[in-house]
Amino acid sequence: MSDPFNIDNDDLIIQSDNDQQKSAFPEPMQDVTIDSSSHGINNSIDSSERRGHQKTFTGGPFSLNYYRKYFDLNTKDFFANCWKSLNPFTKLDQYEFQQVGDLYGPVWITATLIFLLFFCNSVAQIITSWLLNKSEDDTETLHINYFKILLSSINLLYGYIFIVPLLLWAVLRFYFKVVNVIPVTKLISMYSYSNILWIPAALLSVFRGLLANHNSLDAALKWLCIVMGSILSGAGILVRLHQYFSVIFGSESEQDSKKHLGVLMGALILAHVGFSLGVKMCFFGKL
């Protein structure tokens, strides 16, 4: 009689109960050390993640990639900025004064405003010439005037939104020696978005063509368009800049703070009035 416990298969391995219990559970994960220097991994949260996934672009001022950050704007953000600018008395959050702003708005909003002012003025002139039955020679003169208006308006509007913010930034940076001075691109952006409020005045100027035989009403409508556009756009600029000046001069004495605020605000008001008169002369003729 053979022994039932006699097993001739040498390949069979019998494990103890302790070994079976160990094999029933997976081994814990081992600690893995990753060399951050070789894989570019940071032990802390990425700073761009803390800033809301803000993009960074490499390159110097002579590289096109350097200027991409000023045009990195989607459609939703652009229209949100436009919507916010429609209320000239809306104040900005304090952190917004340290944002770089964008140059997409200054380029396209100003171009749109130039086109609207030029188009509306041209339509008004065409209606006037049609009502007065002007000759062909006068029509050719009008075409020449259109070209002059277009060139002068480009110089005036683009010059205003770039030169005035640049001068203001230089005064704050080098004369008042403001430490955390607002970026010049943010100032340019603020000026350009405020010019959206000139659009209703431009559209209103079309009705001048119907007042060809009423010189006094025509002149009154011209000044109404200029005053309305100047006040609305100027309020949008000055309210936000007054808010910023109150922050940077808040640590000074009350007398010095009022003095600096008065000088800067007065200079900006004069610059805006001069710009508005330039628009009047550019599109509507003499003062």
Number of domains: 1
Which ranges are low-confidence, i.e. pLDDT below 50, for 5 or more consecutive residues?
20-53
Oligomer: single chain
Order of helices and strands: HHHHHHHHHH
Q: What share of residues are in beta strands?
A: under 5%
Q: Main beta sheet, described?
A: none
Average per-residue pLDDT, rounded, comes to 79
Anisotropy-based shape: globular
Quickly give the structural class: mainly alpha
> Count of DSSP helices?
10
**Approximate helicity band:** 55-70%
Q: Round the Cα radius of gyration to an integer and report it.
A: 34 Å
Straight-line distance between termini: 131 Å
Number of strands: 0
Descriptive notes:
- This protein is mainly α and 287 residues long.
- It has one domain (64-284).
- 62% of the residues lie in helices and 0% in strands.
- It has ten helices and no strands.
- It has helices at 17-23, 36-39, 47-50, 75-85, 104-132, 136-175, 184-194, 199-204, 215-248, 254-284.
- Helix 5 packs antiparallel against helix 6 (136-175) and helix 9 packs antiparallel against helix 10 (254-284).
- The longest helix has 40 residues, at 136-175.
- GO terms for molecular function: small GTPase binding.
- This is Protein YIP.
- Keywords: Membrane, Transmembrane, Transmembrane helix.
